[in-house]
Structure formats: C-alpha cells, structure tokens
From TrEMBL:
InterPro entries: CheY-like_superfamily. This is Two component LuxR family transcriptional regulator. It comes from Caballeronia choica.
Amino acid sequence: MTAADISVLLVDDHAVVREGYRRLLELSPDVARQAKPLTPRRRTSAFARCDPTL
C-alpha cells in the first residue's frame, strides 16, 4: 500500500474516543483521517464530501 490508500471519516460523540482513534490512525502511514465532524448534519455532509473508505 502507498501513502493514504485508506481514508477514514472519524466520527464519535465522545472526544476521548475520537482522540484515541486519531492517535492510533496517525501511526499508520497508509491511513488518512478525513474529518471529525461533531453534529449529525456535519457528519452526513462530510461523508458525502469525503467519500471515505471506512
């Protein structure tokens, strides 16, 4: 895999969980974190805009 083959839309309503996953994802060079939207409306629009792998 090359850099950022996998894109992840990181969404959770708990900041501690989001931060933990963010830190784990940063360790993997083939994963690009797309966004961390907080409101349901932002989550939906970010998903449509980013077209994440996960």
